[in-house]
Design goal:
325 residues; mainly alpha; 15 helices; 0% strand
């Protein structure tokens, strides 16, 4: 039994370390073999995202929420940056680039979603403020049922019919409920050794879940990517890159230290595009490009987050080398 658990933990570490490559490989494979993830539809897609959010909730402790209360200014700055920069940058890109309505809806939806669940890992890898990262992700996720539908109604409501109430319910079901269950499990079982060992497997399960969501969208709408793929990726790339840059600038203006600036940059740039993908498929079924834009974001954000962590670490190495001369 211990041998099986050790193998699962090793596989989880491997998947977490190579998340971008794995998700990209799944997306490419599914494009040519769409039946692989044809089962990831509707309720199955929602359930997969629920498992991902459950894995996040299982890592939360009462101490994390005490951190939120002890650092209200940091959390306020982070939340304002999260829900102003990415939604407005998406809206500007849609209009400046003249993106088609379905692609624009997908990009705006990604911008209106909370921070990505893998951003905490990236913050850790680049020596950011991990507690601040967890706090920002938690706050943005907790207010997402209100902020995401509201922002979508304001920024995309002019051109599409946004079911704000339905979106509110969807976010409650696929984010807040599983996070609450995970938090309850941690509070109840957190001190048990077996629970701690099982928890080490959850990062790998979360990565598998993200890959399944991306695979499901590619399976359903991959053919449409051939006609609008370059345009979608251009929008996703600019949106994500500007998020990193403007997030870092917010940290500079707020006079945060280096670790906090890096954390804000990654938290703002990396969105929960998995949630956006599920919401797009559920609430905008007549616009398959919206789900594709969200799925491309899901894939690219994982890749770019790892690249950003690498860039920050490279800058540290260069600075250290200069000091040692």
């Amino acid at each position: 039994m211990n041998g099986v658990l050790n193998a699962l933990q090793a596989a989880s570490r491997l998947l977490a370390k190579h998340t971008p490559a794995f998700i990209t490989a799944v997306a490419v494979a599914t494009y040519f073999l769409p039946d692989m993830f044809s089962w990831v539809r509707g309720n199955a897609q929602t359930a997969v995202l629920g498992v991902i959010m459950l894995s996040m909730g299982m890592t939360l402790k009462g101490e994390d929420f005490r951190i939120l209360l002890s650092r209200p200014v940091d959390m306020l700055v982070g939340a304002l940056a999260q829900y102003t920069i990415m939604p407005l940058v998406a809206w500007c890109l849609v209009h400046c680039l003249g993106l088609p309505k379905p692609v624009g809806v997908g990009l705006i939806l990604v911008g209106c979603c909370p921070g990505g669940v893998s951003s905490n890992i990236m913050s850790f890898l680049c020596k950011g403020d991990v507690a601040f990262s967890v706090g920002m992700t938690s706050v943005s996720t907790l207010v997402a049922p209100f902020m995401t539908p509201l922002l979508m109604a304001c920024l995309a409501g002019e051109s599409v019919d946004v079911d704000a109430v339905g979106m509110f319910k969807s976010i409650l079901i696929v984010t807040i409920l599983p996070i609450a269950v995970g938090f309850g499990m941690n509070a109840w079982l957190g001190r048990r050794k077996a629970y701690g060992e099982a928890l080490k497997v959850m990062p790998g399960i979360a990565v598998l879940g993200l890959a399944a969501i991306v695979g499901g969208v590619v399976s359903a709408h991959g053919r449409n990517f051939a006609s609008s793929g370059a345009l979608i990726f251009a929008g996703v790339f600019l949106h994500n890159s500007l998020g990193y840059a403007l997030g870092y600038l917010v940290g500079v203006v707020a006079r945060f230290n280096k670790a906090k600036r890096r954390t804000v940059s990654i938290e703002v740039g990396m969105q929960n595009a998995g949630l956006a993908t599920v919401l797009a498929a559920r609430h905008f079924p007549a616009m398959p490009e919206a789900a594709i834009a969200s799925a491309v974001s899901c894939t690219w954000h994982s890749i770019s987050g790892a690249l950003m962590a690498g860039v920050f670490n490279m800058l540290d190495a260069i600075t250290s080398a200069k000091k040692n001369k």
